[in-house]
C-alpha cells in the first residue's frame, strides 16, 4: 500500500496551496473523489489480509477525516477572503447624495385628521373612538332623532338584517354615537373629538357612501355658546391658515343640539375660482350647537347641572376646500398619480408649532 505519510503531506499541501474555491474543489476531488487517491486505497482494502486490512482501514479513515477537516478550514479561510475583497470592492461612498427613488405619500384624509387633532389637541380635546356598526338607539334615539326623521329611512341609511327581538343594526350615519358612549362611560367634565368613517346612501361629485367626519363634544358646568364660537373661530383660522378669516354663525336646527347653528367662512368667487378668505360671499363648512338637554338625560347626565356644546364637519369637505380637490370621488379611486400630487411626505406631521400648511 502507498506510503500514507507521504500521501498525507502531498494532499494537505495541495489543500493549503489552493488559491480559490475552484482550486480547493480540485484538490478535494483529486484526494476524495470517485477516482481520488485516498478513495482508490479504500477500495483496495478488500485485497488485504484481515489484520493488515484492519490497521490499514483505521489509518485511511484517520487520513480521510484529517483531509476533510483541512478542506473545511481552507474553505472558511477562502470564503472570508472573498467576502473581504467583495466588501472592499462594493463599498459605498457615503459622501455621495442619496439616490432618488419611489416613496410613499400620506393620503390627504389622513393628513387632515392629523391637522384637526393637532388644533383641537392644543385646546385640550382628546380623541375618542367607537364602532362603525351601531344599534338604532345609539345612532338615532339617544340623539333625540324622532322615528319619522328622514335620516332613519331606508333610502338614506344602510341597515343590517334585524335581530330576533326586532332591533336593527346600522352602519353609523355620523360619529355622534361615540359622544353618547363617552357620556355613558365617563362623568363630566368631558372634552373629546371623534374622527372616523360614516356611511350614507349617497354618491356623486360631493357625496360618497362612505366618508369621514370629525365631531367634537365639551360638557361641564359652565360652558356657554360664547365658548363654542371662540373654539370654532380659532379652529377655522388655524386650519385654513388665515388669521383674519371671517366666520359667521347662522341659526339652524339639529335634533341633538339646542340652540343650533351652521358655521360659514368668508370666501370670494371670482372668474369661477373659489378663494377662502375675505370676500363678498360665504361658504358653509360645519354644524354646531349646545347639547340638547334630552341628549344629556339619555346618557345619565344631569342637565340641571351640566351643559355643553357639540360640532361636526366632513373631513373630505374641508380637505377639498383647503387643497383644491374638485371631486370627492377621487379620494377613493386609489390612483397613485393623484396621491403623488395631493399626498404628503411621511414626516410632514402637522402641528401648531411646526405649521399645518405646505
Write the layout of secondary structure elements.
Layout: H1 4-17, H2 21-32, H3 37-43, H4 50-89, H5 108-122, E1 126-127, E2 133-135, H6 136-139, E3 169-171, H7 176-185, E4 190-199, E5 210-220, H8 225-240, E6 247-254, E7 257-270, E8 273-276, E9 281-291, H9 293-298, E10 307-314, H10 315-323, H11 336-342
Parallel strand pairs: 1-4
Antiparallel strand pairs: 2-3, 4-5, 5-10, 6-7, 7-8, 7-9, 9-10
Helix pairs in contact: 1-2, 1-4, 2-4, 5-10
What does this structure look like?
This protein has helices at residues 4-17, 21-32, 37-43, 50-89, 108-122, 136-139, 176-185, 225-240, 293-298, 315-323, 336-342; strands spanning 126-127, 133-135, 169-171, 190-199, 210-220, 247-254, 257-270, 273-276, 281-291, 307-314. The strands form two sheets. Strands 1, 4, 5, 6, 7, 8, 9 and 10 form an eight-stranded mixed beta sheet that branches. It has a two-stranded antiparallel ribbon with strand order 2-3. The protein folds into two domains: 4-89; 108-342, BirA Bifunctional Protein, domain 2 (2-Layer Sandwich). α1 (4-17) runs parallel beside α4, α2 runs antiparallel to α4 (50-89) and α5 packs across α10 (315-323). It starts with a helix and ends in a 16-residue tail after the last helix. The protein has 358 residues and is an alpha+beta fold. The longest helix has 40 residues, at 50-89. β7 and β8 form a beta hairpin. The chain is 39% helix and 21% strand. It is elongated.
